[in-house]
Amino acid sequence: MSKKNNGLKLSRRKALAGIGAIGAASAGAGMGTSAFFSDQESFEGNSLAAGELQLHGSWQQIYYGASQETRPQDYGAAGRPWVNAFPDDGQFVADADSDGIQSLGDRTYVDDPDVDPKYGDNIQLTCDDFEDLPDAPSPVFDLEDVKPGDKGEATFGLNLCDNPGYLWLQSELADYENNPGTEDHLKDFIKAKVWVDEDCDNVPDGCKDADIMLTVDFSGSTFYDSYGGLVSDDPIEIGGHEYDETTLVDLAEQAIYELIVHLRDDLECEYNVGAVFFSGYDGDSISGEGSGDAKLRVVDPTTDLSGLIEDGDYNTADVPADTGDDPNEGGELRNLRYQLAEIIAHDPDPDDDPDEYVWDPREDVDEEDISTGTALKEGIEEAEDVMEDEFGNQHNVLITDGSPWEDGNLGSDDYEEVLEIAHDARVDDLGPPTSICVIGDTDERDESVYLQQVVANTAGVEIDVDDAMDAINSMMSSDTTLDDHDPMDVGGNLAHWFPIRDDNVATELYVICLSDLLGEYVLGYGTLGDVLDDLNSDGMQLFQTPRLEADACFEPGRTHCIGFKWWFPTGQDDVNDAQGDSLTFDLSFYTEQCRHNENPTGPPADD
């Protein structure tokens, strides 16, 4: 059989037409093509100048094909696996060879070409950098001897300048030469993956194993009407069971259920999940005197996520009180109404006295016996004690509607103790540093919401307890309000705090606060032909929070990265049919202005 060189090319795409503030750039071409408002008007010396929307691009390509000795022409001057990059200082020096490693001045992808590319990162470029750069070389991929076992990757950096913009990624199979007499195509033998490369390191990061504790507020205010626990008279469904009305503890159970389903079904990693339910203190009810030990119940960590949320017997009215049967069958993270009632009104471990089971969490609980405290500090501390260091990646999801409350009063000392415990948990004073996500409630005192938002942040970030307490004391004395204080100034993070009344709280928690567990978002995966079809000429809109299809408007200034990986697997049937095939495909990035454009239209259709 005669053999031609196989070709895998990424060519310059014809620039899309610019209309108003619409611009397009082609991967492997200049990628600095800009489109801007065309009008400029003057009125008696005062000018009204149109702004610009510019999209610039950069990349780093690596390729593991033939050896350096066999085909040195496939690689840059640095040798295998470095192919080409933009910018590359060697491109700008007369009679110099490009080494294939992204560099600009003292910034470089790696300092030493012998370093494995997975330990490098695309350089972060600014809009000023692009003003002094020439047009980029084209194409990016131009490989002429692709064989089974070969693989390669390029990460493209995108920089919007001057104004925010929406972004799309497009592809098109521009040309294909098939070996005469064969039906299979090279595009069907080559596999590809396209993903949002958040850290611009040319490596698609997968999910991570983790230890997760759920620290859940079971104080009376999360369920009982007289304490504000009723959210609405609307029914709520949780994992196939429906309650007639909705309370805060129901919202907590719903968020927990959906979070566990996400962890169980969406990822291929292992999660060791436990829980601490905290209420008030012994003797702190309306009819009690003083306060004693914190009321806590612990669910030991387990990797059996399905067991935690399996459906149980909710028809408690049919269970005779003298049988000793537990009406709270099912997973330990289900039926939280009944578990709350048992902790508030009875011993935290009902197994010691089956006759004391709560059959109806409202009717069988005397309101005067309801715990009025909130052992927030003890709940966080217990979660840190119980959390196992199975995977070295700790997360605490705190769900609470209020403030620390002990001895029948709300004092600033209680707030300070919570901040100190949270600080110790986030650094290493209580064990491995723990990231804390908080599902809180905005229908509370300003100082309570502020406390929740300060407690929330990633592992390793310290809390400035003194400054946080100054703000809390100021709000408690009504000198200031929540709007006067930024929790991020003292170690908090609003991106790790979520309102419990938000219908999408579980998914937002999962994809934002626990994003480091999930891995980077994959835009397309399969054969090269399938991936190109998925992206197609209409384009796929990009999002900064892709799992929620949220945050569509990209701010100018920073480099956003998209990774493109391909590989030619060995052992495929009829692979010889691909000999002599070649293909050319285009990748394009397209932008539209965000301002006054709530419904972007996306890339225009080709003529």
UniProtKB/TrEMBL annotation:
Origin, by domain of life? Archaea
Region (Disordered) residue ranges read 307-330
InterPro entries assigned: Signal_pept_SipW-depend-type, TAT_signal, vWFA_dom_sf
Q: Which residues cross the membrane?
A: none
- UniProt-recorded name of the protein: von Willebrand factor type A
Classification via NCBIfam families: cognate_SipW
Gene3D superfamilies xrefs: von Willebrand factor, type A domain (3.40.50.410)
- Give the source species: Halalkaliarchaeum desulfuricum
